[in-house]
Amino acid sequence: MVLALTAPLMSLADPITLRYYWQRWDARQLRLLMPTTLAGIVVGTWVEAALPASGSVRASPRRSRIPEVSCSASI
């Protein structure tokens, strides 16, 4: 729900910021940010590929003594 509310705002923020800072960037800052940005993309892709497709992880296929608790929180 929160993502659905913030996604349009984030989509509008990038073009507005780009227009405001067009040709005002500092090449030194860009050189400092690019390696860590690319490393973050690589690590994030690697972690996402390692996660199970269903999004749930089970320790074992047998039944646990601890009951499952479902929690849904909305902010």
Measured on Cα atoms, how large is the radius of gyration?
20 Å
Give the low-pLDDT segments. none
Number of alpha- plus pi-helical segments:
2
Strand content bin: under 5%
Shape: flat
Specify the structural class. mainly alpha
The percent range for helix content is: 55-70%
Core attributes:
about 80 residues, mainly alpha, flat
Brief summary of the model shown:
With 75 residues, this protein is mainly α.
Summarize the structure in words.
With 75 residues, this protein is an all-alpha fold. 57% of the residues lie in helices and 0% in strands. The chain is built from two helices and no strands. It has helices at 2-20, 27-50. The radius of gyration is 20 Å and the shape is flat. The model has no long low-confidence stretch (mean pLDDT 76).
